[in-house]
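Thought: the user wants the 3D structure for the chain below. I'll pass the sequence to the structure tool as-is, report back what it returns, then summarize two notable features.
Action: structure_tool
Action Input:
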Amino acid sequence: MIAVDTNILVYAHRSDSPFHERARAALEALAAGARAWAIPWPCAHEFFAIVTHPRIYKTATPPETAFAQLRALQTLTNLALLAETDDHLLRLESAALAAKVHGGAIHDARVAAICLSHGVTELWSADRDFSRFPALAVRNPLIG
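Observation:
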């Protein structure tokens, strides 16, 4: 199963992103496909935080619009929204200690742990920081 990171969601949503068309096409291909795909809940939360932030975007996305986007994604029958499982603390600790993360980087370890708990085989992200988690294959769908 493929999971999608925050940055791909943001780029697909924000038409002012230079990566908008490629990110949107990548998400549309997943949505139209027969295979299951996923968004970890922390990525959905971060999507909302970023697109509605007035210091990040001069014209931020209104909260109602951001929630509408998340609701639209949630209606897709082949999309799973992934949350922490009962073994989350062990997976998080393992990922974080192996990658030697600290501070804010724990967010990426959290996403990686959630993906690994749910059998995600590939995370789509433009964030190179996920390379710190070798158990999780990462691919940038915006290049190549």
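Final Answer: Structure generated. The domain at 2-139 is CATH 3.40.50.1010 (Rossmann fold). Residues 20-32 form the longest helix (13 residues).
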